[in-house]
Design the sequence.
């Protein structure tokens, strides 16, 4: 009978050293831990963990090899009032597993019990952790290290972005390999984006409710194993693994000068609420991993049933080791933190919370791009502008105000200018720079750009929630007809609105973020919460891409690079040559004009660039400032065109001119 030797208490997870495997597991409240080993026929051997150092249980398996399947059974009291839910009948995943094999089924055997422990053994239906040891030759790979001021982010889903691309070999479509395929890199280079931000690539599962509806969790925010690349995004070619294929993609993207940012989920787990399955942390150390109510229930600051507790040393260590794994072993360049306010809960939000302090002091992570979704749904969870230095934040003020300006026509000029100038009211404090504002018009969560100008209401019936899910406050405008089918006049007005919105996004101060597919007119048929739609609703249809819109978007990004005021990443000041705010007559805006509902202005950037804005439904004659001006956008094949001081600006449009 194999026995474990004591081994060592670090690092977290299972690690092969050439002679055997060291296993570690955190549990402060357990009375005993069994390591469960499985062979290819799912036969199980249980080995008591022989050593405990503080709250870390550890053991070493001499002769253990990569490929070993394993899990844990954890013993201790089952006392719901105290939040203790130990149940050795339930096989548990290692929270630091580097690979996981098998899906999470909607199976009652996975439930741990309510008032008493459920007696059914879950091993047969549980996924298994897998020990890996994958060396990798990074050759001369170097991070692009794009300065924030030059960064343009492209948010995408691994599967949905590439699954229908006709020029990618079928075996690679929808996989990590497709990300680094020359066809995709050519598209990224044509656009001019500098960073690819990927929706979760970690192993995730579909909630039981979705499985019962015949749906799946497409976005991937129901994370099962945050250290493990998802098997479903591997092409499964001979001798290929998810980790190796992901590394290959990162290396190819870096060679093209494109950074890789991962969307990570450390706010909740796939165990969901009390009705959810017992898969890992709930059975390992429920009060150590989760925020609990006084009666032992789950605090739900995430809307997903539970909230991870990250204010104690072990929670901090678990997240830090995971982030360091993705940077050191996979060479990723940054992270976007889903519902990031949870990372600072102690339980109230604290910008000096232990996890923030650890991240900013870490030698690896302090050099990464760190982006927060700065809210959760708990008390005091809305924290836009409140994150610590070096974090950037998704700016929903920018999203809503720019939509209101162009599609609703009800935003004062002063508020438009505030957003256009990096939202200094939110971010120009404590030494923060304009890059802190991640400017977005759309994201995975919400309408696409095409749907923003085609629908007044959400159409989420296919999600199985009676159209109750998704936001009702979209500030969208269908231009007179609900849905994609409309006459030519409406189609042209919609096109003008898309172009104006894109020009605003890509010529604003701050860090622009594009949603994949917006550059070629992708529609989700009015679904503004397509988290469970792994089908043609979310997959980008490259065969129907609007190439002229792609060219327009690429030209805007190229234009952005030419304007110093948009590259220098310092706050604009009147009088320093970076910006002048002018009215339709080419004169400085008077104090009263800032608060009026006037939707016309001119913005002079770096002295020689002029952004002319008319958000009204009629053409407007404007008088340009003195100078010899040429039109550079909208873009024509004939090149820049000279214009007279009297300029007729089209309805719902932005024009950019340059002074010779």
Sequence:
């Amino acid at each position: 009978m194999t026995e474990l030797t004591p081994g060592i208490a670090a690092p977290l997870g299972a690690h092969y050293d050439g002679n055997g495997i060291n296993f570690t597991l955190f549990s402060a409240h357990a009375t005993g831990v069994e390591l469960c080993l499985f062979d290819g026929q799912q036969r199980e051997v249980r080995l008591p963990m022989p050593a405990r150092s503080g709250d870390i249980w550890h053991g070493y398996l001499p002769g253990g090899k990569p490929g070993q399947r394993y899990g844990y059974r954890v013993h201790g009291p089952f006392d719901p009032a105290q939040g203790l839910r130990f149940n050795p009948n339930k096989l548990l995943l290692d929270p630091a597993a580097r690979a996981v094999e098998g899906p999470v089924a909607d199976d009652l055997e996975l439930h741990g019990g309510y008032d008493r422990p459920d007696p059914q053994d879950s091993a047969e239906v549980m996924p298994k952790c897998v020990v890996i040891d994958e060396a990798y030759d990074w050759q001369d790979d170097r991070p692009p290290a794009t300065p924030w001021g030059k960064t343009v982010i492209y948010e995408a889903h691994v599967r949905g972005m590439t699954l229908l691309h006709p020029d990618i070999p079928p075996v690679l479509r929808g996989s990590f390999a497709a990300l680094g395929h020359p066809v995709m890199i050519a598209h990224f280079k044509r656009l001019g984006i500098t960073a690819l931000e990927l929706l979760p690539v970690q192993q995730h599962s579909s909630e039981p409710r979705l499985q019962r509806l015949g749906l799946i969790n497409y976005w991937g925010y129901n994370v099962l194993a945050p250290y493990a690349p998802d098997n479903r995004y591997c092409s499964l070619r001979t001798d290929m693994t998810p980790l190796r294929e992901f590394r290959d993609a990162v290396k190819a993207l870096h060679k093209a000068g494109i950074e890789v940012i991962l969307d990570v989920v450390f706010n909740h787990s796939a165990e969901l609420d009390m009705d959810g399955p017992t898969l890992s942390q709930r059975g390992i150390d429920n009060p150590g991993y989760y925020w609990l109510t006084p009666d032992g229930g789950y605090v739900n600051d995430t809307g997903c049933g539970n909230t991870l507790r990250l204010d104690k040393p072990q929670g901090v260590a678990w997240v830090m080791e995971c982030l360091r794994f993705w940077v050191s072993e996979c060479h990723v360049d940054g992270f976007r933190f889903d519902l990031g306010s949870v990372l600072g809960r102690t339980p109230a939000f604290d910008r000096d919370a232990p996890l923030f302090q650890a991240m900013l002091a870490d030698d690896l992570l302090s050099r990464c791009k760190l982006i927060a979704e700065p809210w959760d749904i708990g008390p005091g969870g809305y924290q836009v502008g409140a994150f610590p230095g070096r974090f950037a934040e998704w700016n929903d003020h920018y999203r809503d105000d720019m939509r209101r300006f162009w599609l609703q026509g009800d935003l004062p000029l002063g508020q438009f200018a505030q957003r256009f100038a990096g939202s200094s009211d939110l971010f120009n404090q404590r030494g923060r720079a304009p890059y802190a504002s991640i400017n977005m018009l759309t994201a995975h969560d919400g309408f696409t750009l095409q749907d923003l100008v085609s629908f007044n209401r959400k159409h989420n019936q296919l999600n199985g929630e009676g159209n109750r899910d998704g936001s009702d406050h979209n500030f969208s405008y269908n231009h007179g007809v609900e849905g994609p089918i409309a006459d030519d006049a409406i189609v042209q007005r919609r096109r003008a609105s898309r172009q104006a919105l894109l020009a605003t996004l890509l010529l604003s101060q701050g860090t622009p973020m594009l949603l994949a597919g917006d550059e070629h007119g992708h529609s989700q048929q009015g679904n503004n919460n397509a988290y469970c739609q792994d089908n043609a609703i979310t997959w980008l249809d490259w065969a129907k891409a609007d190439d002229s819109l792609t060219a327009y978007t690429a030209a805007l990004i190229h234009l952005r690079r030419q304007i110093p005021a948009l590259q220098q990443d310092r706050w604009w000041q009147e009088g320093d040559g970076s910006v002048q705010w002018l009215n339709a007559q080419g004169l400085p805006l008077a104090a009263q004009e800032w608060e009026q509902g006037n939707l016309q202005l001119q913005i002079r950037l770096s002295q020689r660039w002029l952004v002319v804005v008319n958000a009204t439904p009629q053409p407007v004659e404007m008088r340009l400032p003195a100078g010899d001006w040429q039109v550079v956008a909208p873009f024509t094949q004939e090149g820049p065109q000279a214009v007279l001081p009297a300029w007729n600006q089209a309805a719902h449009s932005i024009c950019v001119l340059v002074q010779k």
In short: The mean pLDDT is 96. The chain is about 20% helix and 20% strand.
